[in-house]
Design a protein that fits this description.
Number of strands: 14
Number of helices: 13
Order of helices and strands: EEEEEHHEHHEHEEHHEHHEHHEHEHE
CATH topology of the largest domain: Rossmann fold
CATH superfamily of the largest domain: P-loop containing nucleotide triphosphate hydrolases
CATH architecture of the largest domain: 3-Layer(aba) Sandwich
CATH class of the largest domain: Alpha Beta
Shape: flat
Structural class: alpha+beta
Number of domains: 4
Helix content: 25-40%
Strand order of the largest sheet: 2-1-4-3-5
Strand content: 15-25%
Largest sheet: 5 strands, antiparallel
Radius of gyration: 24 Å
Length: about 375
């Protein structure tokens, strides 16, 4: 029997320790620390965070079972679980309060979960998706066997989970098209199309080059593919129409790519020492001294690049919000779309989307003020 250690959402001194709950057989092997669950607690049901798994309990009586899953994958990383434990001890705070602080504001209030899938999975599991590419996930409407199937599909990356917040901070879904053709079929279609149908030829060539990706209509339009061509492609069975999530971009201005600068002897010495600490996984503190314009930021950038090269992530904290856009511009010019920004001047929708990008592993570098310490980065260098 597998047992979950759960911090319940009952912020009192008497409940400030993990409670043991039996994991139902259908969830066995799927439940992970960092996920939120619904559990029976006295006469009611409450939510809580799984903070550990074990195969035994000191409780002599019969354990209650987890009632349902709030999340289908962890929303708190292993590093943040450790940080929450340390934070609760240092600040004399309730453990549940520390854990909730680490989530975007909207996820600490009311939200809906959406399951997004492709046409193949939709067709293979009609009892779950009922012919739709997007469904609401309500744990009370699914039995444990169905939830077990959903967990398996999530683990196999056959479905995507997105949180739709009760306010305006909800995922933006836009029209996209997924190829249904093999490379051979694309070549055959290209051979039969008249030269007059330039847009159709262009679409087929794009599908040939990027066959495995859902392509957003707005992007295809910029490539010269008309809406009429897309309607024709759907009718002919070349593509399936679907919906994909579009990230709200908090970066208003594009940046020109920059490259590492030549370092002077002092800068190189600093970079070498920091890089050695990264390679040795040493928790070492370094103090860089230098006047404004002396090149400290370039040292940061090259150390961050080394961390990324070794498979780690990077977090840069700035003292105040007004400095964030300036610093982010420098970092984005070096690391591009791998950079996420977190601060209170962003809209709740932007903060949610940035958190989602970090949690999904799309953003490896985070820049922000103090609250960015709770970004769901893993393996910080």
């Amino acid at each position: 029997m597998q047992i979950a250690q759960v911090i319940v959402d009952v912020p009192t001194r008497q409940t400030n320790e993990p409670y043991s709950y039996e994991i139902p057989a259908n969830f066995d092997g799927q439940v992970q620390p960092g996920m939120r669950v619904q559990v029976p607690f006295g006469p009611r049901k409450v939510t809580g965070f799984i903070v550990g798994l074990t195969d035994h309990s000191d409780f002599d009586g019969k354990l209650k079972k987890i009632s349902g899953l709030v999340d289908l994958s962890p929303v708190i990383t292993p590093e943040l679980l450790k940080l929450s434990e340390w934070l609760a001890g240092q600040t004399f705070s309730f453990k549940i309060s520390c854990l909730q602080t680490m989530l975007p504001g909207g996820m600490r209030t009311k939200f809906k979960k959406k399951l997004l899938t492709d046409n193949q999975t939709k067709a293979a599991y009609p009892e779950i998706f009922h012919g739709e590419n997007e469904i609401n996930y309500d744990q009370q409407k699914f039995d444990n066997q169905t939830i077990g199937k959903i967990l398996t599909l999530r683990k196999a990356d056959k479905i995507k989970v997105h949180y739709e917040l009760s306010n305006h901070s909800k995922p933006m879904l836009v029209k996209a098209f997924q190829s249904k053709l093999t490379p051979t079929q694309i070549d055959e279609a290209l051979a039969t199309i008249s030269k007059r149908f330039v847009s159709q030829s262009r679409l087929l060539q794009i599908l040939k080059d990027q066959r495995d990706l859902p392509l957003q209509q707005a992007w295809l339009s910029k490539k010269g593919v008309t809406s009429t061509t897309l309607e024709t492609a759907v009718k002919r069975g070349w593509v399936d129409e679907t919906r994909v999530r579009r990230i709200r971009n908090p970066f208003l201005q594009p940046v020109k790519k920059s490259y590492p600068l030549a370092l002077n002897d002092d800068q190189q010495s600093a970079v070498d020492r920091i890089n050695r600490a990264i390679e040795n996984q040493a928790n070492t503190t370094f103090l860089l001294e230098g006047v404004t314009g002396s090149g400290k930021t370039e040292v940061y950038l090259q150390a961050m690049a080394h961390a990324l090269k070794t498979g780690k992530t990077a977090l840069m904290l700035v003292p105040e919000i007004t400095l964030t856009p300036q610093i982010v511009g420098r970092i984005r010019s070096r690391f591009g779309d791998q950079v996420a920004m977190l601060h209170s001047a962003m809209s709740s929708g932007e903060r949610y989307d940035e958190w989602q990008r970090i949690n999904d592993g799309q953003a490896k570098v985070v820049v922000g003020v103090r609250s960015a310490i709770f970004a769901p980065l893993e393996n910080i260098g």
